[in-house]
Amino acid sequence: MKKMKLLSLLLAILMLFNLAACGKTEAEPESEELPDFKAELTSTDLKYTLDELESMENDRTLLVNDPNVPALYKYFEGIVKIGVAFTSNQILDFEDPVTQGILKHYNIYVLGNEMKSDHCNPAPDTYNFDDADNFVKVAKAAGSEMRGHTIVWHSQVPQWWFKADPNDQSSLQDCYNNGTLASREQLIERVTTYINEIIPRYKDDIKYWDVCNEVLNASGIRTVADDSYWAEIIGDVDGNGYSDDYVEIAFNAAREAGGEDLVLMINDFNMEWQNSKTQAMYDMVERMLRKGVRIDGVGFQSHISVDCNVNTFRQNIEKIASLSEVYDECFPEYAGNFRVQITELDMNMFVGANADGGFYKWSEEEFKQQADKYYELMDMFLDFADEGVIDAILFWGTDDENSWLNSTPKLRRNAALLVDRDNTLKPDFWSVAKTSFYHTGP
Ligand code: XIL
Residues near 225 by Cβ (< 8 Å), separated by ≥ 6? Predict the structure, then answer.
């Protein structure tokens, strides 16, 4: 009798488990089940005319998710994609105004942190793609394209990749001093294994990749002195006198893993104003293209300041854009495919008298100056978009509260983006949109 009771209890528990499991599979939303965000979040009555824009631009109470506010990307449709970086936790609650702003205004997305290699490959044979999977799912529902950021970098990269013993707990500096860094073969094996996991996984969804990020210093490839162990470990494999072979290895592995349709890019900062670095990028990419490494474009991160010299920036984009001739010559079957993207645009406000920064409350006058600079910049970018050079402009963050510039290089209240801390639209938003009407070409 007791046995029977026990048996039926067990059976009941099993059935419950079964039910729960079934329920879970049924309730789990498939990507098709997410709503058509772009359609839901913006009124269809909007006209996208200059008059309409001017009727709203001085209203500082308009919220980023107001359905009667036009979607920013729409002003530039067919000319250039407008994008945004965000963190995985900013796309969990679809009622959140910040999330709605992401879904509504931009048609290309990038994850700010959770697709970096340290997050996705924290230990040998351990992969963590949950955040990236959800990113892809939400981006697809929002009808937005995606950039993958990033694979090879000296920062936010798994430290175990660089150690002879992946379980070694000492710092890379100590491993370097003690001669216990990974071997060339180990590092190549680890990075290509990772590339073969992540690239095919998102092959049909993520078209643009920052295969390499920030590999240069002001004049050439980064070294241990610049906190990078890549060149130190892999070094000059082909004996051509340059220790940047790890870049080639990563690009070739990514191409092999993802196929010819992917747009594989190299991304870096300061090229906006540092001519020596732009030249170093030009020289390295040219050399690699001539060697048969298909690099499809260069990302200008564009972490600029409100006093940025737009003319110097323009000249440096021109310099890099001229690589398209080399690209077309080396890869005639892909001619026209080389591009520049503005990958991480934001605008530091702490310059001049405010340079020291702090918990400053920015005036509307200062916001106006910022809006003028954003206008000048966008106008310049659109010259390149018209020529088919720039095909995407992405902002690095959703709003002034959610910006890495509040903590980098130190804790202070920066105001780098188009949306204010209270989710209202700053004058920047409208001046960016306005360039779509006033832009007259180079
Ligand atoms: C930044 C993120 O925004 C921060 O949250 C993180 O703490 C550090 O990295 N260049 C890049 C980006 O390529 O990946 C960086 O992102 C900003 C500078």
Answer: none
pLDDT digits (tens, 9 = 90+) for 347-380: 999 999 889 889 999 999 999 999 999 999 999 9
Neighbours of 229 (CB within 10 A): 24
Determine whether the shortest distance from the Cβ of 88 to ligand 1 is under 6 A: no
CA separation for the pair 206, 54 (Å, rounded): 36
248 in any annotated domain:
yes
404 lies in some domain: yes
The response to whether residue 414 sits with its C-beta less than 6 Å from ligand 1 reads: no
Average confidence (pLDDT) over 337-346: 99
Please state the domain count of the chain: 1
For residue 112, the CA-to-ligand 1 centroid distance in Å is 6
Q: Which is it for strands 263-268 and 208-213: parallel, antiparallel or unpaired?
A: parallel
Residue 18 lies in a domain: no
Q: Is the CB of 112 under 6 A from ligand 1?
A: yes
The whole domain housing 414 covers 23-438
Q: How many residues does the chain have?
A: 442
In a domain, 89, yes or no: yes
* Predicted pLDDT at 17: 52
Which CATH number do you get for residue 293?
Answer: 3.20.20.80
- Measured between alpha carbons, how far is 342 from 105 in angstroms, rounded to an integer? 17
Cα–Cα dist 152/144, whole Å:
25
Q: What is the pTM of this model?
A: 0.93
pLDDT in tens, 98-126: 999 999 999 999 999 999 999 999 999 99
